[in-house]
Amino acid sequence: MTDDAAATSDREICCPVCRARQSARPTCRRCAADLTLYVRALESGGVARERLVQATTAGDQAAVLRLRRYLVWLEGA
Q1: pTM (2 d.p.)
Q2: Given pLDDT bands bounded at 50, 70 and 90, which one contains residue 4?
Q3: Which domain holds residue 62?
């Protein structure tokens, strides 16, 4: 397990199917929904946010624009 995955598994999430609050894991404790892709998307968003901060600090405008577009796509905003 990577450090990012470990950080997500310690985090509490809300199942998008039944809204049960639980730690991030591959299946919902209440409805047994497969949350693998959901948890991976959360992990990916966290990594992208960290990289966005780094790109902003470094002044890399191309990376900032690319990461912002990715986060908008990922979060459906």
Answers
A1: 0.71
A2: very low
A3: 3-75
